[in-house]
User: Which sequence fits this backbone?
């Protein structure tokens, strides 16, 4: 069926390269630009107290974040976030692999892990403040503990569902346990692990912001809350924009890494779909 | 008859085997919880950590037991779950309507792609200050956060779902002359339902996280605010007790939505496949 249609169908007449690129750029930026223009016009015609125009926000953005604040507030926050994400992913994959491969351990820990995952991460902040005090380590640990679960549980699931034929093949070819781990178990689990990492990233960002809103005197989350309490509306908006940009940046980096790590997997999917 | 019993026997044996392994699983799981509580208790009574930062497990469970008899506690559970339910309902309706609309119209889909990819990763908690300014310390402010966070879960899944329609099925529907409404019912809905259910399950747990976060940061009444206030007056046992309560609530939400998903998709390959194994 597929073969038949694919031989009959002729390749469509392609418009020239520039026109195609132009239209895809138009599609990509059309709606965002339109929205910004509407917002800007709206802001000048009917200025609302809490919704300044995009230009005002852009000005505030430059004034607020480009300069010393970048070093005192933005960089430390980002460093904590990065450290926490690395720790969460490493711990999650290591512990997840161990738990996934050891049946009794898995059965022992499963209800506990389900429970820990179900705890809304922000409620852990008071607990960790009580346990460790307000320190940089605490801020990193609370992000790690809150965002660890998606990658850990997905690793457990992924490791568990390794194809049994492949496992047996690996055994009959007498692969050593290390070889089996790195050339079979982890690659087989990687699509699920990456799905877990994606969730971990967004929880980690949320935890970074919230942990700085409590009992903190610096950092992005603190600054945004400070601006709001002091009615510095444009600055507050610029903080929201910055957090949004960090979120988008994380998503972009993740997509690039995922494409690299899962190139073989997407390849297989393409073939299956064709 | 003989064939039936021949087929029945291994299935029965397997079922018995499954029963034994389920018992083992439940036993080990219970043991895990007991070990965890015992470790906690040991850490607390040996004063490795002072009681001001780690109350004992027994104290915490006693406080929890006391709370369960307190009407105000249940009111707070009710407030949190009301915010959760309203937020989730709004997000689901918006997500389904907009996701279906955008997903079914290719031009719209292409034009909104970058906007969606840009708005979706914005952490919802970044909007907390804005929500406080716009609505004050009220339920509406919390709802803004809850809806923003859980909307994307539903929206993106519905968007993928309605785009996943099998081309053969679509052409068949077209050649049988199904009307627009019929196609929606018999073609789009069955294709998108598994995606929608996944989105709903994710949205339900995200909405709970944000409902409690909103109460902690915005200060509208509910369990999150109780935690915050208990911590500020140094009542650390209550903090631990409520953390356990929120974990249990999260667990219940997960289980309920997994159950709904299985029921709604009982006809679908992914669920039938699991049962056949």
Assistant:
């Amino acid at each position: 069926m597929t073969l038949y249609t694919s031989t009959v169908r002729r390749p469509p007449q392609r418009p020239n390269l520039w026109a195609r690129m132009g239209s895809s750029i138009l599609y990509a930026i059309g709606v965002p630009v339109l929205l910004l223009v509407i917002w800007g016009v709206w802001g000048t015609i009917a200025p609302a107290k809490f919704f300044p125009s995009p230009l005002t926000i852009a000005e505030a953005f430059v004034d607020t974040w480009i300069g010393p604040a970048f070093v005192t507030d933005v960089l430390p926050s980002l460093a904590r976030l990065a450290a926490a994400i690395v720790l969460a992913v490493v711990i999650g994959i290591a512990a997840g692999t161990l738990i996934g491969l050891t049946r009794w351990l898995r059965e022992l820990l499963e209800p506990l892990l389900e429970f820990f995952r179900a705890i809304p991460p922000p409620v852990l902040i008071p607990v960790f403040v009580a346990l460790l005090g307000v320190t940089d380590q605490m801020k990193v640990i609370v992000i790690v503990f809150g965002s660890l679960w998606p990658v850990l549980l997905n690793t457990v699931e992924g490791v568990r569902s390794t194809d049994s034929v492949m496992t047996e093949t690996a055994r009959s070819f007498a692969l050593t346990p290390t070889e089996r781990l790195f050339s079979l178990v982890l690659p087989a689990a990687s699509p699920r692990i990456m799905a877990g990492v994606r969730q971990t990233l967004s929880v980690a960002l949320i935890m970074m912001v919230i942990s700085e809103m409590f009992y903190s005197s610096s950092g992005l989350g603190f600054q945004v809350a400070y601006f709001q309490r002091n009615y510095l509306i444009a600055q507050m908006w610029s903080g929201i924009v910055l957090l949004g940009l960090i979120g988008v940046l994380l998503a972009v980096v993740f997509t690039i890494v995922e494409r690299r790590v899962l190139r073989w997997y997407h390849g297989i999917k393409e073939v299956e779909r064709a | 008859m003989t064939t039936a019993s021949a087929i029945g026997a291994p299935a029965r044996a397997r079922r018995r085997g499954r029963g034994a392994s389920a018992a083992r699983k439940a036993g080990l799981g219970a043991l895990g919880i007991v070990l965890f509580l015992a470790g906690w208790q040991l850490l607390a009574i040996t004063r490795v950590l002072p009681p001001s930062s780690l109350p004992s497990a027994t104290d915490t469970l006693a406080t929890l037991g006391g709370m369960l008899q307190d009407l105000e506690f249940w009111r707070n559970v009710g407030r949190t779950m009301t915010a959760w339910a309203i937020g989730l309902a709004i997000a689901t309706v918006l997500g389904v309507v907009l996701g279906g609309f955008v997903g079914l119209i290719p031009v719209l889909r292409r034009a909104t792609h970058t906007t969606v990819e840009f708005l979706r990763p914005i952490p919802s908690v970044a909007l907390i200050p804005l929500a406080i300014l716009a609505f004050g310390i009220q339920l509406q402010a919390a709802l803004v956060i809850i809806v923003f966070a859980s909307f994307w879960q539903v929206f993106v899944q519905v968007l993928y779902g309605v785009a996943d329609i099998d081309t053969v099925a679509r052409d068949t529907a077209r050649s049988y002359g199904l009307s627009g409404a019929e196609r929606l019912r018999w073609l789009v809905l069955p294709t998108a339902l598994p995606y929608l259910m996944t989105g709903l399950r994710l949205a339900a747990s995200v909405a709970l996280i944000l409902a409690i976060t909103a109460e902690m940061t915005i200060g509208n009444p509910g369990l999150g605010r109780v935690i915050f206030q208990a911590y500020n007056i140094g009542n650390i046992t209550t903090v631990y007790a409520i953390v356990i309560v929120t974990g249990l609530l999260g667990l219940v939400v997960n289980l309920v939505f997994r159950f709904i998903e299985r029921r709604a998709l009982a006809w679908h390959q992914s669920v039938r496949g699991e049962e056949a194994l």
